Amino acid sequence: MSALRARWPLHALAAACVALVYAQDASAAGIPPGERRSGYEFMSRETRAMQDDDFANPGTLWVLDGEALWNRKEGAARRACADCHGDARASMKGVAVRHPAWDAAAGRPVNLEQRINACRAVRQEAAPLAYEDKDLLALTAYVARQSRGMAIDIASDGGMRPFLDAGRETFMRRQGQLNLACVQCHDEQWGKKLAGTTIPQAHPTGYPIYRLEWQGLGSLQRRLRNCMIGMRAEPYAYGAQEFVDLELYLMWRARGMKFETPGVRP
Amino acid sequence: MARAVVNVPATVRRGEVFEIRTLVQHAMETGFRRTQLGEAIPRDIIRQFVCTYNGAEVFRAEFHPAISANPLLAFSTVATESGTLAFAWTGDKGFSVTESARITVV
Q1: Considering CB atoms only, which of B3, B21, B69 is closest to A215?
Q2: Are A65 and A97 in the same domain?
Q3: Which candidate in A17, A119, A185, A227 is catalytic?
Q4: Using CA atoms, how far apart are residues A20 and A17, in angstroms rounded to an integer?
């Protein structure tokens, strides 16, 4: 006992405790910025080539559909997106990298799909589009395409903070029959194999994505449902606040990373 | 109306082999799947693709149920004359899409 006290004087023990607390803080902070990798970097050469070439990327088909929808008059107001926003290539540049973003009318952050639907309801007086509806995916892909190559830039100040914290809490919380948390795979085991596939870091850099497994385009919430079903948890409903909070946390976690929409994933 | 994207070089030197790439929007429903209620989902696929170069057929493909949705085709031909490349996809349920591209041979 006295030998231990001699080897570990009180101040050294205190310093060790402080170091331990910092180490825990570091793990809570997740992947260090220098080690963050987009899902793109875990893909095969062929799948990367598919994403990089607009003529081979099937997401292009949705982007082109979205462009047509952008210019089509909709709803009781007979107004097209272009009538207010003009050329999307200028007006929508940088919009997707800021979403989920604060919505003053709703008093909470909304994702890009919800923003498009709100615009439809208020400006076009049209019925909202359902999640995973082909038209909503096309419009989202077209809007998001305008931010390709830009850095993800999520606001975390003001009213966003509690929603961001709620999203982080969901990411950290064990759930489902397998009792797994998102963090266990995506922060702690990324790069290793789960069945035949590499575990990515879960940075939503290319949504909506063309997923080869889906043979089609899908939203981030569809992808999150996949993960939740995989851990045998009951997925939240499409558009649920829990999902938007989780999207917000994931986008914030990927802040500064390059936006790739329309991404291709295996 | 399904969407198609074709990628053809604008100008090619005479006698040169050039690549053509096409991408078409189609679900390619195999006919082997069932709904959650057990009803068979009928097959709905593209059956045939034909590419003509100034009216002459240069490439033809038959499609089968194992081919992916939104199929990409890449093939090549020899540049002979300036003119038009015409592409036609036909399939189940009266599916028919055509697209064309101009090419200049120098």
Answers
A1: B69
A2: yes
A3: A227
A4: 5
* Nearest CA-CA distance, residue B25 and chain A, Å: 7
Give the whole-angstrom CA distance, residue A42 versus residue A220: 18
Does A2 fall in a domain?
no
Pair A263, A59: CB distance under 8 Å: yes
Contact A210/A59 with Cβ under 8 angstroms? yes
pLDDT tens readout for residues A33-84: 899 999 999 999 999 999 999 999 999 999 999 999 999 999 999 999 999 9
Number of domains in chain A: 2
* Rounded CA separation B73/B93 (Å): 22
| Residue A119 annotated to the active site | no
- pTM for the model stands at 0.88
pLDDT of residue A28: 53
For A257, the domain range is 10-53+152-265
Question: Which of residues A123, A145, A167 is at a domain's end?
Answer: A145
Alpha carbons within 13 angstroms on the beta-carbon side of residue B26 total: 31
Report ipTM for this prediction: 0.90
Select from B5, B19, B68, B99 the residue whose CB has the most chain A CBs within 10 Å, as the one to mutate to test that interface: B5
Q: Which of A47, A53, A55 to mutate to test the interface with B (most CBs of B within 10 A)?
A: A55
What are the per-10-residue average pLDDT scores of chain B (106 residues)? 91 96 96 95 97 97 96 96 97 96 96
Based on the domain organization, do A84 and A17 belong to the same domain?
no
Is the same domain home to A140 and A69?
A: yes
For B4-105, CATH gives 2.60.40.10
